[in-house]
């Protein structure tokens, strides 16, 4: 099992460009999450999904969109990147809300 | 979003010392509390998921306790080793809120 994978690992964008981060899990988990990690801020939830076809907003959803068309994939989109979105993005999945989350390796995004 | 607080922010101990950290969370609408271990340049890995008041869980030299009525959990490490050096995160399940972590450094 690969667990949780994220694509790409690194990316540099110019302000205003768009991109999609892909998260994939092979554990048949219902729940998937996108977090951002910034120095001194810890992990903050951007969006999450409780099952295929569902998404919900987290603590910091502005400037991001997500889709969960297939159970194993959770996509995070930036329509018009801003320097404030420079961060490390982590995807995670879990069997249920009260079960441990399994994290991907992270995507380091820099917006110039 | 209600706050999840962790203390101390960082801790430096010598090999062999025992140590503990605190996670405090809202005592209302409790569902579960998670502890994660996060080594530098890696991803967070789950240590414990705690759901019942009075829960005590153990994994090797690491253990955790839970008090949902007063809203806190303790993580203990007995006989710290250099490989225990990491950031320890707690997460409040009901709001999917993580604390900022306690960074532990264990010197040989």
Detail the poorly predicted runs of chain A: none
| Helix/strand order of chain A | EEEEEEEEEEE
Structural class of chain A: mainly beta
Give the N-terminus to C-terminus distance of chain B in angstroms.
Answer: 39 Å
Oligomeric organization of the protein chains: heterodimer
Architecture overview:
The complex is a heterodimer of chains A (112) and B (108). Helix content of chain A is 0%, strand content 51%. Chain A has 112 residues and is mainly beta. In chain A, the strands form 2 sheets. In chain A, strands 2, 4, 5, 6, 9, 10 and 11 form a 7-stranded mixed sheet that branches. Chain A has a 4-stranded antiparallel sheet with strand order 1-3-8-7, with no helix packed on it. The model of chain A has no long low-confidence stretch (mean pLDDT 95). Chain B is mainly β. Chain B is globular and about 40 Å long. The A-B interface holds A 33, 35, 40-45, 48, 58-59, 90, 92, 97-106 and B 1, 31-32, 34, 36, 42-46, 49, 51, 89, 91, 93, 96-101.
Could you list some keywords that capture this structure?
heterodimer; A: 112 residues; mainly beta; 4-stranded antiparallel β-sheet; 11 strands; 0% helix; B: 108 residues; 6-stranded mixed β-sheet; 5-stranded antiparallel β-sheet; globular
Write the layout of secondary structure elements.
The complex is a heterodimer of chains A (112) and B (108).
Chain A: E1 4-7, E2 10-13, E3 19-25, E4 31-38, E5 42-49, E6 56-57, E7 65-67, E8 73-78, E9 87-94, E10 102-103, E11 107-111
Parallel strand pairs in A: 2-11
Antiparallel strand pairs in A: 1-3, 3-8, 4-5, 4-9, 5-6, 7-8, 9-10, 9-11
Chain B: E1 5-7, E2 10-14, E3 19-24, E4 33-38, E5 45-50, E6 56-59, E7 62-67, E8 72-77, E9 86-92, E10 97-98, E11 102-107
Parallel strand pairs in B: 2-11
Antiparallel strand pairs in B: 1-3, 3-8, 4-5, 4-9, 6-7, 7-8, 9-10, 9-11
